[in-house]
Amino acid sequence: MILSRLLQSLAVLLAMSFVVYGLMGLMPGDPIDLMIAADPHLTAEDALRLKALYGLDRPWTERYLRWLGQVAQGEFGYSRLYAKPVWEAMLPALGNTALLMAAALGVALAVALPLGILASLRPGSAFDHAVNLLAFASVSVPTFWVGLMLIVLFAVQLGWLPAGGMETVAAGGGGMGDRLAHMVLPVATLAMAGIGQYVRQMRAAMIGEAGHDYVRTAWAKGCGPARVVLNHQLRNALLPVTTIVALEVGGLFSGALITETVFAWPGMGRLIYESVMGNDFNLALTGLLLATAMTLLGSILADLAYRWLDPRVSLR
Amino acid sequence: MTNALRLLCLAAALALGLAAPARAAKDELVIGLTQFPSTFHPSIDSMLAKTYILSMARRPITAYDPSWTLVCMLCEELPTFENGLAKREKTPDGRQGVALTYRLRADAQWADGRPMTSDDVLFTWTVGRHPRSGVSNSELYRRILKVEAKDARTFVLHLDRLTFDYNAVNDFHILPAHVEKPRFEAGDAADYRNRTAFDQDTANPGLYNGPFRITQVVQGSHVVLEANPHWGGAKPAFRRIVVKTVENTAALEANLLAGGVDVIAGELGLPLEQAIAFEARNDPRFAIVYKPSLVYEHLDVNHSSPILADRRVRQALMLGIDREALSRQLFAGRQQVADASVPPLDWVHTDELTKYRFDPAAAGRLLDEAGWALAGGVRRNAKGEPLALELGTTAGNRSRELVAQVLQAQWRTIGADVRLKSEPPRIFFGETVTKRRFPHLAMFAWYSAPESVPRSTLHSTMIPAEANGWAGQNYGGYASPEMDKLIDAIELEIDRGKRKALWVDLQKLYADDLPALPLFFRSDAYILPTRLKGVTPTGHQDPSTLWVEDWRWE
Hints:
The structure holds two protein chains of two kinds.
Chain A: H1 2-26, H2 31-38, H3 44-53, H4 60-72, E1 78-79, E2 84-85, H5 86-121, H6 126-140, H7 143-157, H8 176-210, H9 213-220, H10 225-247, H11 249-254, H12 257-262, H13 268-277, H14 281-309
Antiparallel strand pairs in A: 1-2
Helix pairs in contact in A: 1-14, 5-6, 5-8, 5-14, 6-8, 7-8, 8-10, 9-10, 10-14, 13-14
Chain B: H1 3-15, E1 28-33, H2 48-57, E2 62-64, E3 70-72, E4 86-90, E5 96-103, H3 118-129, H4 139-143, E6 144-149, E7 154-159, H5 177-184, H6 192-195, H7 197-200, E8 212-218, E9 222-227, E10 240-245, H8 249-258, E11 263-264, H9 272-280, E12 286-301, H10 311-319, H11 323-331, E13 336-337, H12 360-369, E14 373-375, E15 378-380, E16 388-394, H13 398-412, E17 417-423, H14 425-433, E18 441-447, H15 455-458, H16 481-492, H17 496-513, E19 516-529, E20 532-533, E21 552-553
Parallel strand pairs in B: 1-10, 1-11, 16-17, 16-18
Antiparallel strand pairs in B: 2-3, 4-5, 5-7, 6-7, 8-9, 9-10, 12-18, 12-19, 13-19, 14-15, 20-21
């Protein structure tokens, strides 16, 4: 079964690579046109020479097939923008993004799951209303605005935390504490964006499970609240939440463009955006396909987690 | 915020061992930019962030100084006919060429202690003219027919033609042969851009010859430069300079206020309206310096349009807009109104030309004359067609979008119905403008150089078309034998006085004929800490960092 899912994933990746390459290839203009428009010193001869050098004078389908052949041999090529092997250009950003997104996901789950569970215990209570309000605010307020407000408050007004970057680059900066300090605001921004979604899912799933017979039976047997909620109800309520979290795995490797831009965090979101806009096919394709592969892998892991959470579920 | 919450936050901060980011030490400076360079090779890809950073670490042979005068930076003396270092000669095909003798400064050396030599110059020329080396602007290298090494420091460039700016070799970026030659010769020249030490070994001191050298690059984040111990010029006041990239300008401003950066570069920093708002807050820690530049904001006119082919309509459109009021209202008067394409800071600029001050009545008379009669608020011609125009510009550029809206409103008062169209820069510059797909007007800016001859933008041989592979930048399709003649003459006129007269004629013709509608010369806003001294904005393509050794804390 797993093998079948892996083969399906491979087909999705192949289709995805074709679509992404095609969309990039069909985008109007190319980086050489833009360079020429910005610099009157570049001549038409320069433009033709550079387009030929970068292969931009060939049809995109021809370039795609060549790229696919190279990838099949494990050769991802060079980044046109950064003049480096693709993985060398991508790995630092990948690490930065994974660190940021994993921390944000961890914080979001650590806050959202208990809040969702607690709110579900007394639906309609003042606490439940407050949690719902928080959840709606979390999904409604734009990330860039939250990021900027946090910067203004904690970096500009209070001066407690740095406004951006990954570390203090002036002499005397650096170290674990300094790096953690630089993570606080972007992690908080991303976590706040995720909390609302997880709270609502957790709360709804818990309320849904509360009406089932097995929960009533547990109460009737005289189980304590902690045992009923955590051992019986939660285990089943985690199924839909697991699906959402599993799909977030792709996000761990594709980054968050807006948050990375606001906090000057050199991650995958910015790298992929720049590579797409700069027609850096090798870099953009590898980045996007990696994110897709991770999302597909997350989906397979979610299925496996279902089996663990509910042995009645089987993979077919 | 309650005290309890304050205490909680403080406790969290202390638990992490944090404090507010320390201001840079006395011998350090952190500069904020909105762009990160994709490559550090001086001749591959043209990018302002790269030029800005490399100007602290590398010096060109010649450059324009802050007073827009051509000066030697790596050479001892500019070759001229007067000092005998420039000599007329015939090219092999019988044309008028020129031989230029340059001598590298005695103290010119790479940051690894190796002297700069004529071998470096020869190698650079080899790379620059190689069709597959990836060098973006190879025009100068192609124009050089031969390089002759006279001795270790003296070399002669033989150029294929004699133009007035014959001794300006600003685009000749000397490469260190001892570092780059083995990499260039290691394989196919087409892959040189993937082998160059500028990107594979950026911290190699042998790549730099300026007061600083790059010691660390964190892609997408920051670049660290440290003082070059082998620099022969004035000792810089800073031991270390960090250039930090913050693409979001609101976040960049917050970084400045929070102490994350000390300076916001004018060349690639806050947009003018944001800088004006920043200035309005009167923060005594910062000084805002506005420098008019040669970035020429204008409206390109499609001369194939039957409406705009009539000069009277173009003149009426100029009379129908109040650019002074527009600059005052939107930009606190910081954008300099343009009368033609040559900025006032350029020595060839003239004020003796037709100036279009806001005069709707005169605009109306011209339109009447051109056959556009006012009927129900919109002018129509004899066939009943309305005076309807489309004005395109770049989406996401707030300044331009605001200006476009004001122009639309002002032109409505003279009976012109203008429809606005914004497109993403990639489409606007990649297709609409470059392939002449704008029906009437396109608003954008030209970035040129001091005394830049407008051949590519105004000469009739430079009109892009499918037949010529969309070559040239005369996007409006302007064709004037008189303008062509002036451009050809200016390029070849060595005598400054005669050349100035030609430039005056060119500007007068521009103002009368209006190949494009002039708007402003854009100002750059430099946000500098009040105690930072010695920063001199140039307003042209050579950034202020080319004189970074003059910068110091007071």
